[in-house]
Amino acid sequence: MREAVFDTVVVGGGAAGLAASKIIAERGYRVALVERENRLGGILNQCIHNGFGLHYFKEELTGPEYAQRFIETTAGTPNIEVFLETTVMDVKTSRADNNNSGKGSTNSPGTKEVFCYSSRYGVLKIITKTIVLAMGSRERNRGNIGIPGTRPAGIFTAGLAQRFVNIEGYSPGENVVIIGSGDIGLIMARRMTLIGARVLAVIEIQPYPSGLTRNIVQCLRDFDIPLHLSHIVSRIYGRDRVEAVDVTPVRNGKPEMEETFKIKCDTLLLSVGLVPENELSKKFGVKINPETGGAVVDAHMMTSVDGVFSCGNVLHIHDLVDYVSEESIAAASFACDYMEERGKWPAAEQFPTVASSNIKYVIPNSYDPEINNRFFFRPMIVKNNAKLCIRMENEDKEQKTLLEKRLLHVQPSEMVSVNIKSERIKEFLRDGEENRLVFSIQ
Amino acid sequence: MGRKTDLSSRSNKSLICISCPIGCHLTVEYDKDNLREENIKISGNKCSRGITYGREEVLAPKRTVTATVSIASEIQRRLPVKTTKHIDKVLIFELLDNLYSLKVKPPVNIGERLIENFKGTGVDVVATMKLDR
Questions:
Q1: Chain B residue with minimum CA distance to A61
Q2: Which residues of B102-129 are buried (b: 16+ CB within 10 A; e: fewer)?
Q3: CATH superfamily for domain B66-127
């Protein structure tokens, strides 16, 4: 078994892993960037549409262009060694790093062993101080939403169909129904139309679209593709290939079966959400947040396992890659701080963040009063002119408002971020108390 | 008895602005017989981009087009491309026909021109991925 020693192992060479590797290498640490595919860039390579980079690069780019900007700065850095076609199988940490959870080997504290395999390197063991988890996410599929009916060919997740069309050069079918109005589904509705297929309908269970409004306009309305809100696909027909689907309206959460209508089609694309890909993380004892499906992270983006950091879609699902880059840069900087200040880490006591009214989750799960904290959170309502309120809450239930902010428009598909300065937090901090930071939207 | 000719010939259109994620609901008022930029009235916009978008949607709706063309590459079978500017919506499918007849050979770099000044519109089509082999 080949062995190698690095300061950091970054797992995944997509948007998150590229940004993290770049920063860690710039700070002078040696990075092993491990990627399962035969090239870097991850899912960006198949996202050929534009709209990427408006925040981060202040210009509009396509997915491959966005990836290339990072690949150029990453591949040329002597501190980074890229391991392509290499899969991380397992991680062994020391018991001390796992906070006495019982998992982990008898490695000396702070040392981790990352086991990988590939056709190029065989089995490879990388010994490292820190790990950045950047594995991205998986698509939810038919099994996750349980559509009754036969099991014919012609049912794909939208992202898989995107890969077929944009990379492999195959068309998944000719007469298409799309389930779910998430952005990938909307983008694929337009994409399928542009390659000559007919998109007959987009079916959304919610009363509002789950993708961005601009995508409803430029992907559906531009091509007169009908969007059925508050509808479900209630049955799939076809023996060898999809032949038709039943579409049923939903009222007050109940399907109105007698109003069911049939659409003849040969292809079904599913755009019904993404799930963080944490099989590896769970294996070595990383604590998972049930709200996000990603790791629980502290104010320094560190997971429950000492020296292991998480960023990008493996942490929580982002709607903009720009935010993935930003978050990964933050996580990578903290990983560097960790290596610089080993033994003295964590520097300060941290306190919990809490998602309250109309907020699904807040990342990170705690804050550090000694630093300027940046929070990401996901609203659960659709509203114009909403009010964001962040309060400090303690045992006596006395709540002090730390920040109030008008948000022009909120909706579940758009993540919101907010910065709070260290000085502002310290004004409200009380000794020996829980100092919960509670987020809500009205 | 015939109706009197509508001398005003003014029309109304409801649009959703796609300039940013807010998606303002615009009402666009214009004179069908006298379509000039300054005659188009926009309301419901929260910023000036709504005015630009609303006017463009009435006069000549435009979009950036992204697509793929055939490439004889070892890495992947399609090369992603984009138009360098917005192009008239009515020209999109004609542009695609042109793209689908192209056969590109590697190496190709980001920004490499594959179609120049399509039908005199001033719009080029460029590659958006680097494929060396």
A1: B128
A2: eebeeebebeeebbeebeeeebbbbbbb
A3: CPE0013-like (3.10.530.10)
Average the pLDDT over A90-98 and give the result.
79
Quick check: B128 and B80 in contact, CB under 8 A? yes
Per CATH, A141-272 and A351-441 having the same topology is answered no
* Residue A105 DSSP class: B
- Say how many CA atoms lie within 13 Å of A316 toward its Cβ: 24
The fold of the A2-138+275-340 domain, in CATH, is FAD/NAD(P)-binding domain (3.50.50)
Burial class (CB within 10 angstroms; exposed 0-12, middle 13-18, buried 19+) of A109: middle
- pLDDT tens, residue by residue, A377-409: 999 998 888 999 999 988 776 678 999 999 988
Q: Which residues in chain B have their CB less than 8 angstroms from residue A414's CB?
A: 21
- C-alpha distance from residue A119 to each of A84, A91, A122, A391, A410 (Å): 10, 19, 6, 53, 47
Residues A306, A308, A310, A315, Cα dihedral to 10°: -60
Identify the residue whose tokens are 């730390």. A402
Q: Determine the distance in angstroms separating the CA of A195 from the nearest CA of chain B, rounded to an integer.
A: 8
- A48 touching B (Cβ < 8 Å): yes
Cβ of A217 within 8 Å of Cβ of B129? The answer is no
Q: What is the pLDDT of residues A124-162, one digit of tens each?
A: 999 999 999 999 999 999 988 889 999 999 999 999 999
The residue extents of the domains of chain B are 10-59, 66-127
* CATH of the structural domain A351-441, one choice from 1.10.3470, 2.60.120, 1.20.5, 2.60.40: 2.60.40
- Residue A442: Cβ-neighbour burial (10 angstroms; 0-12, 13-18, 19+): exposed
Decide if A67 contacts A41 (C-beta within 8 A): yes
**What pLDDT tens digit does each residue of chain B (133 aa) get?**
444 555 556 788 888 888 776 678 899 988 877 778 778 899 988 888 899 889 988 888 889 999 999 999 999 999 999 999 999 999 999 999 999 999 999 999 999 999 999 999 999 999 999 999 9
CB A437, CB A353: distance < 8 Å: yes
Nearest to B51 by CA among B11, B19, B10, B13: B19
Superfamily designation of domain A141-272:
FAD/NAD(P)-binding domain (3.50.50.60)
**Closest-CA distance of chain A to residue B3, Å:** 33
Comparing CA positions, the residue from A356, A424, A346, A345 lying closest to residue A393 is A356
The interface predicted TM-score of the complex, written ipTM, equals 0.88
For residue B14, the number of C-alpha atoms closer than 13 Å in the C-beta half-sphere is: 2
